[in-house]
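Two proteins, back to back. First:
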Amino acid sequence: MFLHRLLAARAAAGDPIRVGVIGAGKFGTMFLAQARRTPGLHVMAIADLSLPRARAALERCGWPAEQYAAPGFAEARAGGATHLTEDAAALIAADGIDVVVEATGHPAAGIRHALAAFAHGRHVAMVNVEADVLAGPLLARRAAAAGVAYSLAYGDQPALIAEMVEWARATGFRVVCAGKGTKYLPAYHASTPDTVWGHYGLTPEDAAAGGMNPQMFNSFLDGTKSAIEMAAVANATGLTPQAHGLSFPPCGVDDLPRVLRPAAAGGSLAHAGTVEVVSSLERDGRPVFRDLRWGVYAVFEAPDDYVARCFREYGLVTDPSGRYAAMYKPYHLIGLELGVTVAMAGLRGEATGCATGFRGDVVATAKRDLAEGEVLDGEGGYRVYGRLMPAADSLALGGLPLGLAHGVRLQRPIAAGAPVRWSDVAVDEAVEAVRVRREMEAAFGAPPARAAAE
């Protein structure tokens, strides 16, 4: 990609890519740790709802205090320093910003910030995959109309999976399945912020000492984050979710091509050209041998006997037929790798993964029997988890997007394991995120058939 060479040239010319970061949480902080070491990048401004939290994050990742002492945007741009602000809108509008990193994790905020960035001609690195799944296809269309890049965040698993799918297709392979690994047991769907630390082998005191957010970590555990990320992959790659969503089969890296092939060929998939998340735990809780808990993969198919022979000759692990093989990356470094997206957008106006259609959706699903009048508390909370569905099925159901299942009141009881529908909650149709989502549903409707996507 020659990104480093191009960044070095921008640095030498005194014309770095100027970046505004919204959200100084874990992902944003990890990016900041590397951004100050990357020639050709200038973090001109950081916006966070809490300036003390932002300063603490910068101190934690090694920034010298004088680097973020700029009193305003103009001083930051002229002096190569960084301005801190609580005003995300002002950051987006600030003269000189090239790329906006949206790292709030809040879907409604992500949509608002992306639309403002497009209006000001800024590229967007959308770390906020919750916002992307809620309205990414429409946001991508708006970005294209504005002549800017809208991108998944490199370092996060969806962008890395999309890159692997692109590699396979660019070399002529049909992608059978792509996805990631995680720690999963069926009981985790009912996990709440009160029970999450036991599943991680931590005490609440240990977690608090590490500054760990129980609702966020619970979303990783209860299947919600996996559903969100696989919906983003489906929308970016054309792979289509299975009708039942995710199965989380236990699987290590050596078994990827055996397990993740169509059922007709002896595997676990309902169809080829799909997404799946593999578990690092057997169903009885034993660890999977050579698990892929932190990584990503793509399974692809040999088109003929000659290519299958090449698989053998070059040592690829295949299924027993020799027809299916896999590539995988065992780790992802989230924000530490985000500079790739920023560079691709700022240098070339290109994305590291971007929604091209509405193929996957995440529907709020009851963790337990819910009573009329209860208020939903969103991702990783006490009441619902996110279930991956084909977008056509979600639309036919009238399923409530997980990204809007926060702060809304139930108008009728919902049984445990049942999806929540738009009609089950009192929704304010005037809210921007609701309006944008409704517009996306109307604009994209039912996605094309799976065969067309392949």
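And the second protein:
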Amino acid sequence: MGIMTPTNRENSICPKFITGVEPPAGRTEKALWFIFRGRDILLKTNKNPGAIPKLLDFGELGLPAVREQYLGVLEGTHCFSIELPADAEAPEGMEFFDLRQAYSEISEGCFELVNKAVQVMEWDRTNQFCSRCGKKTVQKPGERGKECPECGELFFPRISPAIIVLIRKGSKVLLARSPNFPMGMYSLIAGFVEPGETAEEAVAREVWEEVGIRVKNIAYFGTQAWPFPNSLMIGFTAEYDSGDIRPDGFEIEDAKWFSVDKLPVLPGKISISRKLIDLFLKEEGLEV
């Protein structure tokens, strides 16, 4: 897949998936089942490895469902999310994958649906009771929402905006390492937008807090939904302005300026961080 600049990202958007809330009555076709045990997803491992199970009925797997949510239709195929109990075992020919591990097994299109499915599942799981009065919530008819029958409070899926930024200094790019990253991997500076803050202000603040430098010429790149846990990643590019790199030692354990011929291990192709890095590489004349 080529570089996703803001222009061709917009052109790539098409209504292949139609969101739905009410499951169809009398369905006779197989559906896709996005099945989660905690934040692990069940994928096939024998025929068509890495595929989402496609079944007429979830009961075919012999697994106990805690909760089920209808997601919508993908090119004529209905999609559901399922939450399993913590002790559920994978059926023969299938395996549970940690979400981050799963993204190396699936396509980008599948990633988008897994993203939606896990966030809907988490929303369903964490909004069983009203946070205002404690009563059991009920599904709001026709909407992806829950309602408290006692006090009327509404609960919709929560989206947390976060920024991620590629910073250039001439022909070099700033890459940083979190203590939670796989061995040797570096990525871009990222962080959540705080209340009352613009996304651009969040870029400047996060960069200063995490690596101690100032940036300028902050420019929008694009967005990506990211289910860790329920983020909308807002991508930016920026240029180095001043200061020396000073990792904060908590969020960031190391950060350096890298040239294209001495890059560390990078994030996977699906992530917006890699799309930003690939844009930098392309601008530096490297094929990606």
